[in-house]
Amino acid sequence: MNEKNLEYLKKDLKYLGFGDKLNADLEARIKEQPSEFKLHMTGEFNKDNLKERVDYTLDFKKSDKTDNYFLNRYQATLKNDDPALEKTQTFYINKNSGITAKEAYNLLDGRAVNKDLNTKEGQPYNAWVQLDFQEKDKNDNYKVKQYHQGYGYDLEMVMAKYPIKEQLNPDEKSKVLKSLEKGNVTQVTFAKQGGEEKMYIAANPQYKSLDVYDANMKLQYQGVEKKESKGEDKSQEKKETQKQDVEEEGDTKKGKKSSKRKGIGV
User: Fold this and answer.
1) Among candidates 116, 77, 119, 82, which has minimal Cα distance to 98?
2) Are both 185 and 126 inside the same structural domain?
3) Which of 44, 112, 163, 183 could bond to 191 as cystine, CB 3.0-4.6 Å?
4) How confident is the model at residue 1, as a pLDDT?
5) Integer Cα distance of 208 and 157 in angstroms
6) What domain range is 126 assigned to?
7) Cβ 69 vs Cβ 30: under 8 Å
8) Are 23 and 115 part of one and the same domain?
9) Distance between CA atoms of residues 244 and 154, nearest Å
10) The pLDDT value given to residue 161
């Protein structure tokens, strides 16, 4: 057994948020030396004081030329009491980077995630990604909507429009921004007349706003200005999304990119 390859895969699993729970099964399967194999894991996430479950199936394949194994993709299924309402997506791994287990849950739950991506030519660029549950591709995957820098969603500037107390502390502000970029619903404190109130927020790049929830996770409002979701802006958002491939290449050539994390395959 290739010990170096095993340790590499263990680090890969840890980076992707699967921890070390699969390590024993991974080692056992590699010792058997099959041409390919699958590992299974279930993750639980809190939402509205309830537990939501995601089933993961990780695909490992052996190299045709060496004894190295690679994790090229995994499938995530957000479970539901009604199987017809379950959502499944395959996420691809590229050079030890990709959508993490928690980010996969956030995407399947309808939120957007900020990641560094690569063009077909291998050039990196940064974008918000979100699953389009209205349309699937030829592989039965939900199509991925992208909102990159050309679209004009600046999370920090948008957050500044809201009375969020954590913005007054640089460290707390940074933690909130990073949490939102991962697609999390994040607890914050709203400063209100006569006191404070615990609220929850999530990034909403499509409408260039935040989704705001009360302490009971009831949606309060979307965006600072209602007009953001009306006709003209929706038309503009559609045009921007349709142009994303052209703009991505253009932004990359002009050097308009971020370098927060490694590039990934979605």
Assistant:
1) 116
2) no
3) 163
4) 78
5) 10
6) 3-151+258-264
7) yes
8) yes
9) 17
10) 94
Note whether 191 and 69 are same-domain residues: no
Lookup: tokens for 47: 């939402």
**Nearest 5°: CA angle at 114, between 119 and 147?**
65
Confirm if 99 and 75 have CB atoms less than 8 A apart.
no
Give the largest CA-CA distance in the chain: 69
Tokens of 260: 């927060």
Pair 52, 125 in one domain:
yes
Do 90 and 20 lie in one domain? The reply is yes
Contacts 24+ apart (CB under 8 A), 231-239: 233/207, 237/151, 237/206, 237/207
Residue 96 located in a structural domain: yes
Strand partners, 37: 60
Reduce the DSSP state of residue 161 to 3 states and report it: coil
The pTM of the full predicted model, rounded to 2 decimals, is 0.82
**Angle in degrees, CA 246, 252, 254, rounded to 5:** 105
Adjacent-strand bridge partners of 78: 54, 87
Q: Which run of H or of E encompasses 219?
A: strand 219-222
DSSP secondary structure code for residue 151 in this structure: G
pLDDT (tens digit, 9 = 90+) per residue, 151-175? 999 999 999 999 999 999 999 999 9
Q: With 70 as the cut, is the pLDDT of residue 228 above it?
A: no
Residue 244 lies in a domain: no
Nearest alpha carbon to residue 251 among 150, 117, 183, 160: 150
Domain-embedded: residue 253: no
